[in-house]
Amino acid sequence: MRLYASTSSDSSTAASAQEDGLHLAPSPLKRQRLESKEERSSNGSSTDISSPPQADSAVVESHLATLMVKCPDRKGVIAALAQLLYGLGCNILASDQFTAEEGVYFQRIRFDLTDMVVGTANKAVLERAIAEVADRFGMEWRLFYDGAVKRVAILVSRLDHCLYDILIRHRAGELKCEIPIIVSNHPDLEGIASSFGIPFRHLPVAKGSGQDGKRAQEAQIEALVEELGIDFIVLARYMQIFSEEFCSRHAMHTINIHHSFLPAFEGAKPYHRAYERGVKVIGATAHFATSELDAGPIIEQDVTRISHRDSVHDMIRKGRDLERLVLARALRAVLSDCVMVYGNRTVVFEI
Amino acid sequence: MRLYASTSSDSSTAASAQEDGLHLAPSPLKRQRLESKEERSSNGSSTDISSPPQADSAVVESHLATLMVKCPDRKGVIAALAQLLYGLGCNILASDQFTAEEGVYFQRIRFDLTDMVVGTANKAVLERAIAEVADRFGMEWRLFYDGAVKRVAILVSRLDHCLYDILIRHRAGELKCEIPIIVSNHPDLEGIASSFGIPFRHLPVAKGSGQDGKRAQEAQIEALVEELGIDFIVLARYMQIFSEEFCSRHAMHTINIHHSFLPAFEGAKPYHRAYERGVKVIGATAHFATSELDAGPIIEQDVTRISHRDSVHDMIRKGRDLERLVLARALRAVLSDCVMVYGNRTVVFEI
Amino acid sequence: MRLYASTSSDSSTAASAQEDGLHLAPSPLKRQRLESKEERSSNGSSTDISSPPQADSAVVESHLATLMVKCPDRKGVIAALAQLLYGLGCNILASDQFTAEEGVYFQRIRFDLTDMVVGTANKAVLERAIAEVADRFGMEWRLFYDGAVKRVAILVSRLDHCLYDILIRHRAGELKCEIPIIVSNHPDLEGIASSFGIPFRHLPVAKGSGQDGKRAQEAQIEALVEELGIDFIVLARYMQIFSEEFCSRHAMHTINIHHSFLPAFEGAKPYHRAYERGVKVIGATAHFATSELDAGPIIEQDVTRISHRDSVHDMIRKGRDLERLVLARALRAVLSDCVMVYGNRTVVFEI
Amino acid sequence: MRLYASTSSDSSTAASAQEDGLHLAPSPLKRQRLESKEERSSNGSSTDISSPPQADSAVVESHLATLMVKCPDRKGVIAALAQLLYGLGCNILASDQFTAEEGVYFQRIRFDLTDMVVGTANKAVLERAIAEVADRFGMEWRLFYDGAVKRVAILVSRLDHCLYDILIRHRAGELKCEIPIIVSNHPDLEGIASSFGIPFRHLPVAKGSGQDGKRAQEAQIEALVEELGIDFIVLARYMQIFSEEFCSRHAMHTINIHHSFLPAFEGAKPYHRAYERGVKVIGATAHFATSELDAGPIIEQDVTRISHRDSVHDMIRKGRDLERLVLARALRAVLSDCVMVYGNRTVVFEI
Predict the structure, then answer these.
(1) DSSP single-letter state for residue A282
(2) For residue D83, how many C-alpha atoms fall within 13 Å in the half-sphere facing its CB?
(3) Domain with C98 in it
(4) Residue contact A168–C174, C-beta within 8 A
(5) Are strands A254-261 and A281-288 parallel, antiparallel or unpaired?
């Protein structure tokens, strides 16, 4: 995975946090963006599917940043962070906080570095100062610079509605990210990728190859993700189930979309079973993929009404509209650094 | 149960239909309204909780009726019924039909008897004519005269939001029914009943009496339902689970409301579990009570949004708003003769 | 305009109905589909943007049809139509009716011609029989055969979200129509058209040409619509206002989409004014275009929530999602022969 | 009006702010709650409709407070307030902020005084400290102590749905306020008031008395509001229009509810006009009443779907459900100190 910003106060904290089921999204990242870029240029820039580093000039130009912190709830956290940023000459544009009943404190601060007293470019000073406060309060933290545009890989199979939706929104400027690659286990959607000028990689699971074939394909995907410095993987109706290992490694930066029902129908053909039960509402859920299928932290959900006139086919059609809307909203929240995870829940700050 | 209108084409059909899981709502009714009224006056009119028969004058004045039919899908059904009503001089005001994929045909016809060629009062001719067509097509049918206002018993425990909602809507004329009784296993809501001028009966389950106590209380409820000629039982947050026998006897005319989630959370404290899972949507479901808990045919559902800021307490509060809205809509649909049941599904025609 | 099916009981009725503001959608059509096709082949088949007549085989294969009627409310209408179809051996699959308070009766009947006693192909007998009943009851009527796929022209300017949405749904089979042409006053969206394999025609309004230039461009559009046998014109964010004459000629088969607010904001920059007023809800409305701007009969509307955090830009973004959803639903309803117009209102039967 | 907490940094600022159309809700309050209570006991405690001061013990027990501030956007505001509270030993529980595009900064801080270093009871120190910071940043501010329960007067006419809804929610603990009085220009709803144990005052507008009669009744209402120390006036379908003077004096603490449409229909019988236009959505808007009818800052809005089957009567019924829901949400937001006003807009922080 690409490594684009600074990190939790120390790596051991981050590691243990992960074991406790406490995560920021995305999951622990260990190195600086600059290292990452050097790395990429040394080992990967020649590949033809690597997008040109068009974001780099933006790094210099944009002076906005988002700080996300999580720590045990204690007096003085807000004051300490506000004082720190004020002291450095940063202007807080927005701040949202939430204290979970379990005594965990979350904050998202959006601020402007333009008038930073040590110079806008001197991010090391800023990051050192944050790290110090973080140590004092036992904080996990992430710092995202607007210039460091996130990189998203889209994984698809044959269904195109979610893919189209993301690409259209991306082109319209709704999604602040680069999409350097679309990966599929089927070749069907290559034409769509190319009509949007985005590289497409067909990585089929070899037929009859069983678990070995699946693992081999997963390894190819992971190599690509690493090579391209991908920050988030979007499963836009990707119809393969990843191994537990893959899910663990990419937990909290892999986003999935699936249908939901009241009540839920587990197992195969849920639309058929929802039809038989005569539900009046169907839904869709976007969540972080975890090793437990479809049970990761929920980012966004929505529903639509159904009547007795709706066939299974109608429900699937209406479900498509939900899936693409809900996935797009979840992706937008994640790309805007609004989503934090704890336990099996998310805090989704408003943009 | 009170018996207010005519019935399926013959009682053996109705019985076997029930075994097949095919029902109209309400479930098979065997005698005419007039009999029923005589019965009531002979054995029950002296009870002080029996409401005065204020609907009787309406019986004479109202000339509208609703016919609900269900039969195997066959050519000519619509024509036969339309021709029958036209021939008798009835004016069809609205007709809605639906053919389920399983090949079952449903129709709801609303018509005006004012110009009936045999005289408006001569309902026997109308019913005989319908019974004939019904025989030909293997129809189950129900005929509801607007004048025969349905009678609803409300069962409550301690929560008042659904009770209040029904009573306010009833007073506002939104619910076309009489409410001759409110029954509760607790005395708490008697004041509300009396402020709306509705008799209240406290039927507690004797403490420590186990299953016997529960059955005894059920028997009291059933006696009351019978005595008062009740058509529908509304469980407005009634926190007792009925026996399977009770449910079977009152299936398809007992309406329950409960919370729903995406995904569903079975077992105790579902709001707490939904909270832990961080759901972004909660719902409520109104359904016919059957012997399988909360699994009967769904009449109406709706949902509301939830964020990370919502505590369990907030979810319960928002759930209350949903419960009363969804229950009211379901009750209104049922009272307007818009709901038909087949298998575990409903057809809910628009009013 | 292309002429694909039969028509109102006589052409003078249809004409006067239009003057009265009473219309079925689409507006009066005067000739048979077969004529129309002959006409096209004689005068237009050489044009390279004319789609191949792929629907023709479907004409033979599909045996479903939809009859839409409108007449003064009278006893016996349902019976007469049901009897007619039953007598001919047609099987009614669905029937929906509505009687407006003004005493106007609407019915949509969907039926199967497979077992028609005079042979499935003998549509003339069917149409003559309907015309007879129609005369008796003073009906306007339209008959749509499933095989006669409707032809839609999409008009766009520079915004692509509605165009993409229609094309994706069309490809997914959600919209039962052919799209032989996309017309624009700007060249920008040609690439999208070509990625879906649909002909694109750039018809600019000559700069500085004033009303003359506008009329000239309108004439080009009308010629194209005529040549291609277009049934519906969809204004998918087409930013030109048509002349009154154009609107009158194409009323009830031109569908427009625009934003809506509570309260409404007339005039320029409505999003800015809605922002200033701090609205909490914004909406979109799909309607038939008439000569009065944005005031034609409403087909579909929907809304989305707004908070104080939403900038004008956010409102426009959320509005885009609404616009494409609402336009798609309206188009689907119209293409499924579910929409009838009277006065300035629509009856939209459920599909 | 009752005066319960501290106030803007100085009264001249508050006054000029009001002229600029910048307000917090509620509008400027000039004295301390204790004064107010003394005042009441000296001049009004003998009135039988004055509720007993049951909130007083709560004043002692509750240690939570909400600070709302508004000022020109400047660096260091968050830091200054956070530092101030931290320095005093207060624990910030929640903080929400918003910077409007016009460069106005809004913040809501909820905090716990339990460990205040100068003692929990020593609110004067806290208020002085805030006033100092406020002076520095040109802040308007309000401080609300949880113990100082707000007092709400409900004004009604003959429609009971909104009144019932508020009273039921109040009894269920959803609305943190006292309701010492219900006022009506009609006697009809006295029974409802008494069934909830709330004093009812019938203040009719003398017939044929014209503007004088209206003014006389307004004066009676204002006297009552003053006498009872009312913080918010809720117009729960109160069908009288207040004079401009009354509206100005009570702007930003008078909440009204009315129907809304897309598009809007001005003037009489809007439901009838919406029906004629065939709208597919109707809405309701809760707003602060201002001297311009129905044009004050919007607090909350919602909508519901409508079809061609809905008569004017159905629309009114569905509108009732909207009205009570929207009014309840608005009132809850206001009572939770979540609503701030600027220009003609509101900032509604999430509870």
Answers:
(1) E
(2) 14
(3) 11-46+63-145
(4) no
(5) antiparallel
Structure tokens at A312: 């299974």
pLDDT one-digit tens code per residue, C312-325: 999 999 999 999 99
Q: Of D294, D302, D314, D321, which one is the catalytic site residue?
A: D294
Q: Is A195 on the interface with C (CB under 8 A)?
A: yes
Determine, for residues A168 and C161 on separate chains, whether the beta-carbon distance falls below 8 Å: yes
CB distance B326 to B300 below 8 Å? yes
Tell me: the pLDDT tens digits for B287-330? Answer: 999 887 778 999 999 999 999 999 999 999 999 999 999 999 99
Residue type for D21, please? Answer: G
Beta-bridge partner residues of D154: D182, D234
Q: Which residues on B lie below 8 Å from A301 (Cβ)?
A: 262, 279-281
User: Which residue, chain included where needed, has tokens 């195969």?
Assistant: A268
Contacts of B24 (CB under 8 A, 6+ apart): B8, B68, B70, B140, B141, B142, B252, B340, B341
Query: Tens-digit pLDDT profile for chain C (351 aa)?
Result: 443 333 334 333 333 333 333 344 443 332 233 233 333 333 333 333 333 333 333 334 479 999 999 999 999 999 999 999 999 999 999 999 999 888 999 999 999 999 999 888 889 999 999 999 999 999 999 999 998 999 999 999 999 999 999 999 999 999 999 999 999 999 999 999 999 999 999 999 988 888 899 999 999 999 999 999 999 999 999 999 899 899 989 988 999 998 887 666 666 777 788 888 888 999 999 999 988 777 899 999 999 999 999 999 999 999 999 999 999 999 999 999 999 999 899 999 987
Residue among D254, D193, D194 at smallest CA distance from D218 = D254
Rounded to 10 degrees, the C-alpha dihedral B288/B294/B295/B300 comes to: 50
Q: Are A21 and A112 in contact (CB under 8 A)?
A: no
Which of C84, C118, C145 is the last residue in one of the domains?
A: C145
- Whether A158 and A297 map to the same domain: the answer is yes
Query: CA geometry: angle at B215 spanning B212 and B219, to 5°?
Result: 140
Residue located via tokens 């006056």: B41
DSSP state of A290: -
Domain harbouring C113, CATH code: 3.30.70.260
Tell me how far apart the alpha carbons of residues D348 and D337 are, in angstroms, rounded to a whole number.
9
> In this structure, are D80 and D167 located in the same domain?
no
